[in-house]
Specification:
The chain is of the alpha/beta class. The chain is built from 33 helices and 30 strands. It has four domains: 217 residues, no CATH class; 327 residues, Rossmann fold (3-Layer(aba) Sandwich); 241 residues, Rossmann fold (3-Layer(aba) Sandwich), CATH 3.40.50.12470; 129 residues, Multifunctional 2-oxoglutarate metabolism enzyme, C-terminal domain (Rossmann fold).
Amino acid sequence: MHRLRTCAARLRPLTACQMAQSPSQPRPAQAPLRTFPQPTRHYTAPVAAEPFLNGTSSNYVEEMYYSWLENPKSVHKSWDIFFRNANAGAPPGAAYQSPLPLGGDLRGPGLGQAVVGSQPSVEKLVEDHLAVQTLIRAYQIRGHHVAQLDPLGIMDADLDSCVPTDIITSSDKLGFYGLDEADLDKVFRLPTTTFIGGNESALPLREIIRRLEMAYCQHIGVEFMFINDIDQCQWIRQKFEKPGVMQFTLEEKRTLLARMVRSTRFEEFLQRKWSSEKRFGLEGCESLIPALKTIIDKSSENGVENVIMGMPHRGRLNVLANVIRKELEQIFCQFDSKLEAADEGSGDVKYHLGMYHRRINRVTDRNITLSLVANPSHLEAVDPVVQGKTKAEQFYCGDADGKRVMSILLHGDAAFAGQGIVYETFHLSDLPSYTTHGTVHVVVNNQIGFTTDPRMARSSPYPTDVARVVNAPIFHVNADDPEAVVYVCNVAAEWRATFHKDVVVDLVCYRRNGHNEMDEPMFTQPLMYKQIRKQKGVLQKYAEKLIAEGVVTRQEYEEEISKYDKICEEAYARSKDEKILHIKHWLDSPWPGFFTLDGQPKSMSCPSTGLNEEELENIGRVASSVPEEDFTIHGGLSRILKGRAAMIQSRMVDWALGEYMAFGSLLKEGIHVRLSGQDVERGTFSHRHHVLHDQNVDKRTCIPMNHLSSNQAPYTVCNSSLSEYGVLGFELGFAMASPNALVLWEAQFGDFHNMAQCIIDQFICPGQAKWVRQNGIVLLLPHGMEGMVRAAACISFLEGWLYDCNWIVVNCSTPANYFHVLRRQILLPFRKPLIIFTPKSLLRHPEAKSSFDEMLPGTHFQRMIPDDGSTCKNPGAVKRLIFCTGKVYYELVKERRSRGMEDTVAISRIEQLSPFPFDLVKAETDKFPQAEIAWCQEEHKNQGYYDYVKPRLRTTTDQARPIWYVGRDPAAAPATGNKKAHLVELQRLLDTAFKLDAFKGHS
């Protein structure tokens, strides 16, 4: 048996890993197709070799051997002889015998007797066919390493100048496979794992090598052999290996030329008119425009009606003009130096803004909606936002398979390799609650990042290697070959339509200018830019090619240029009209009809957010039951549901029930609710339990909230990947698509939001000012110091009234107020991001409960909860008024009770921190004119709310009354992490709050 395994191993082709470890040689910069001497020998394999040669896998012999051990008649007679002789000790070269005529002895000379000198040439033939199969596989795996991808001819796209040893660059390399020049004209049967033969099943070796070079080593490099699905690999082989697949009609070539003219002349027009303006033009990758248009055309042909795009700044204006077809005058007027902030938002430059446009696709004659999402200089930050918006659009139109709505993401090479959000976004691509059923990624590979050489910017061979983690095929293409670019984009769009999985197109190009039009690239890349200065433009090269082929005449080409130049000049003249500028033209997510009612602007008032008691009881019954029959839940959960039922009976709710009431009521009103984040289905602190799990059946779950009524909106609650940046961006994009949904992201712990700070800083906080759009995303940030590493969120607040503020920040102390603020988020006539500091210990605190009376019709969210105890009977006797927010209120109340100071110390809760409730705070301070005023927080003085609250409290009070501070001293770390130290600090805080002479030096 050992000998037979050795034999099978000798016959097995090299694995990808083995080949990667083989020696390599320097790569020629632009290798032409290889030619070899012309030997004449020519023959094909005999029938005995056919069972193995007929395209089988490398494990075929080993599998056949094990079958033979079980039943010798299960294999071909010639293999039966081979295995018998090899088992008897014959070497592989002597074990083979041709089958004898009918009636002959099929066993050879005799079992257990070695065969010496029989038919060695046949064994050589088997080995040669295996070698050819291995050679074909080598090109499929590594052909992209020698493809001619760099338009400049000076760089290696994979940062490696060596040619893999198993790629045939000259006849002397045939020896690697045990072949020589004499084998070049032998005819070999082709395995079923290649399509290079077209309709032919066998080819001479010379032709096999030529066709492999044509398929894998020209201007297209294909990475796909890491994909673990044989059907997908075969699909890709067919697209690139079949002879003559990359053919274009005359009309297609003329269309491509026209698109290249628009792409190139647009940049040249901007350069002529605004030579000193930064615009991050597309020069050096003009083929991006036909690339994107091709993806959109093919996708439209396959039924896509809505395409959502995200991209960095390079080429953005060109994409707006020539892909999305934004009016040119709207782009040109953005260059007007007299523009004021009010005209263009306060926020960003023209090459960061987005738009939305519905138009006819001229190739398919179908309607298509195109939107480009606004994106800051954090280049890849928009990736998950686009995915979330795409998912939402698919959800709202019932597109469960992604056949009508899709996303296209553009990337720079350095950012694609360097920024972790790319990895986070890829890992959302196949998750059930986050998949968009395939994204086409287009990398504008400048072969440089700002001024950083790619050899200093990444450790992977290609910038696109991150895509391999999700088995996405990667098509590298020389961007100076427009036809190759269009072909791979067609294939990419077909892949997405066929398999609904991600795919990457890597446009290997260059920047004709520096990082921007004002930059001097010769400082850092002198050799590259010397070559670029000599490089003929891709439009000129392609036009000359088509003129030489007779596809167009030079006059037709020049007329096409003149026609587009005239379009630009006319738009430039119109851009001088000040009336044309309107910021609505730059919205990437319009909400038609939301801001008006019967054609008139909506009232700014908010109705009561309370519910009638019957509604509360109905939702409570669902929250405390298991709607499905024969569903076994955990014993501990049974106790939780019984506890909920008891609370409903007593007309009370805790934090989890208050949330349930808010969500359930909105669902019954037709508002979709989506809750996403790490472990949100159960809740980090095991309080929510919105998804029940059958204890006996794997993957059987029940979501009671989807059983509220027959015509309710769907409730989506989904545990996310362990990502904050990516998932928060995704949910932001989801909320962007429609104002009529409550979309919430919950951090596992409040301070985890800092991993998503880029989304908060660039999209959520300045969203309306910077991107001219509203968004109703809700962030739930568990907050509170409990003697462990703190789960707290410290955010910089901006003042303003509710409509004018940039966001709303609350720290609720009661379940009823939490209930109201969630409902208010939808009932408001506008949308603002809502930040909620949610509790930990209050989830089960016996005093943190609310009565139904606080949630009935006529009730509202309380921005501030005043002290309504015995201090109200004699306000003049109150010596101290303590303002606080959140959980610390309950600790203060407990301490006040133990000290017997209910009459002399008032405690008021500020529930809404932004916008600050100036009116209510002033009324409270005026009510206790003799009381000194203190702000109490459990956070350290340099953290939390103090620096934000102090000037606002001073604004509302008599300037003679100081604002004292009660809390921990400044510290570098947010918490001690030690329970004993925490309790000591807490007691010191409480002592300070209630010792009436303790304020010296604490203002």
